[in-house]
């Protein structure tokens, strides 16, 4: 992958996503925008993102979504169960995620992504 290539996993209904995208564009990053609710990252991609973020799957999980209950998840769910749920219910993936130069950041707040540019 091109080291200057920037990707944002994006939900257009999310204000933090829109603010993060605007910030990236202001910085000249011109990211590839992936609307992850339509183009769901593969399990391999999710594992790679988790490694780049340096976090466990449960730390990338939106536990307040109704899909959390629907997927049958709880505080003792395994990494595999969480990743499977994220594949079936991508709304559970925290957003926005920006990947740049082999590193990743969650744009909450949007300024967090500046650390990896």
Structure description:
The protein has 117 residues and is of the alpha+beta class. The chain has a single domain (6-116), classed as Glutaredoxin (3-Layer(aba) Sandwich), CATH 3.40.30.10. Helices cover 32% and strands 15% of the residues. It has four helices and four strands; from the N terminus they run E-H-E-H-H-H-E-E. A four-stranded mixed sheet has the order 2-1-3-4, with helices on both faces. The mean pLDDT is 95.
Question: Keywords, please?
Answer:
32% helix; four-stranded mixed β-sheet; Glutaredoxin; alpha+beta; 117 residues; single chain
Please write out the topology:
Layout: E1 6-10, H1 15-26, E2 32-35, H2 43-53, H3 66-70, H4 79-88, E3 97-100, E4 103-106
Parallel strand pairs: 1-2
Antiparallel strand pairs: 1-3, 3-4
Helix-strand pattern, N to C?
A: EHEHHHEE
What's the pLDDT, averaged over the residues? 95
Unreliable parts = none
Named CATH topology: Glutaredoxin
Summarize the structure.
This protein has 117 residues and is α+β, with helices and mostly antiparallel strands.
């Amino acid at each position: 992958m091109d080291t200057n290539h920037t990707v944002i996993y994006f939900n257009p209904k999310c204000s933090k996503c829109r603010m993060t995208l605007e910030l990236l564009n202001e910085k000249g990053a011109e990211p590839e925008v992936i609307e992850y609710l339509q183009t769901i990252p593969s399990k391999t991609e999710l594992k790679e993102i988790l490694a780049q973020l340096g976090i466990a799957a449960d730390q990338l999980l939106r536990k307040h979504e109704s899909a959390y209950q629907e997927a049958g998840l709880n505080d003792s769910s395994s990494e595999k169960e969480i990743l499977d749920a994220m594949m079936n219910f991508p709304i559970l993936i925290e957003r926005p995620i920006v990947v740049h130069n082999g590193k990743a950041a969650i744009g909450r707040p949007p300024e967090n992504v500046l650390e990896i540019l």
